[in-house]
Amino acid sequence: MNVLIVEDEELAARELQNMLKQVDPTIEVLEIAGTVEAATDWLEKNEADLIFMDIHLGDGDSFEIFRQINVKSPVIFTTAYDQYALEAFKNQGIDYLLKPFDQEDVVRALRKYSGLMNTAFLPRVNPENTSAAPAKERNRFMVSIGSRLKTIDADEIAYFMAEGKYLYLFTREEGSYIIEETVSSLAGQLSPKNFFRINRKFIIHIQSIREMFKLSRNRIRVQLAPAPPDDIMVIVSEDRAEQFREWLNL
């Protein structure tokens, strides 16, 4: 399968490329285009079996590509916003991945593509087993404070929070730092005993949980210490609630 990635964040593009290779080594990423102009120029001269396309690019939204040229390839849209789903499916969209997505989401999207194209897709990984303990856990993180560098031990971390294009590390001492990682890339590097990814935005340390409250549809609201900025409500997603309970040994 030949794939085009349209993404203006280099880290996100490389992470998606790595995910695709892990899922199916036969997938070849032909190009990574970071702008509307670059993607349009490439598609005028080339074709891909499948396109992974971010919606917000450096020089405009990716729907402009479809206004300029006839895109024939199916598209899996990727974005941090859910309000573009209708327009996405009007423009060759076959799936819509909300950032930050993980390997399970990519596997499901590729299976959907396979079903629509009547092709065989056998992922190397079992998506139900992607939370297995990593081979090597990270014990510390390096962060920058202006021109200074500082290391933070994993046990000092309260949680990681994705917001927009950034990932923030929050410590128990209420410090916060931007780190050059993503939620998906971190999930396999942390101690599964101490950290749990509760939804697309948060990975929390077990000792940062102050209180928990039952919600409808099997969801759980978690009160963290320190509290996230702007009183953001932290909720364990419905599809992770059962694993979360097991993690807490309830």
Core attributes:
single chain, 250 residues, alpha/beta, Rossmann fold, OB fold (Dihydrolipoamide Acetyltransferase, E2P), five-stranded parallel sheet, 7 helices, 26% helix, globular
Describe the 3D structure:
The chain has 250 residues and is an alpha/beta fold. It has two domains: 2-129, Rossmann fold, CATH 3.40.50.2300; 154-248, LytTr DNA-binding domain (OB fold (Dihydrolipoamide Acetyltransferase, E2P)), CATH 2.40.50.1020. The chain has seven helices and 17 strands. The strands form five sheets. It has a five-stranded parallel β-sheet. It has a five-stranded antiparallel β-sheet with strand order 12-11-10-14-13, with no helix packed on it. A three-stranded antiparallel β-sheet has the order 15-16-17, with no helix packed on it. Strand 13 (195-197) and strand 14 (202-205) form a beta hairpin. The longest helix is centred in the middle third of the chain and has 15 residues, at 103-117. The chain is globular. The model is unreliable at 126-135 (pLDDT under 50).
Q: Estimate the strand proportion.
A: 25-35%
Based on Cα principal axes, name the global outline: globular
Quick check: average pLDDT? 87
Number of separate domains: 2
| Number of discrete helical segments | 7
Write down the CATH class of the largest domain.
Answer: Alpha Beta
Q: Going across the major beta sheet, what is the strand order?
A: 2-1-3-6-7
Number of strands: 17
User: How would you name the CATH homologous superfamily of the largest domain?
Assistant: Response regulator
List the helices and strands in order: EHEHEEEHEHEHEEEEEHEEEEEH
Class by SSE composition: alpha/beta
CATH architecture of the largest domain: 3-Layer(aba) Sandwich
N-to-C span: 43 Å
Helix content: 25-40%
Task: Write down the CATH topology of the largest domain.
Answer: Rossmann fold
> What Rg, in angstroms, do the CA atoms define?
19 Å
Largest sheet descriptor: 5 strands, parallel
Poorly predicted sequence stretches spanning 5 or more consecutive residues: 126-135
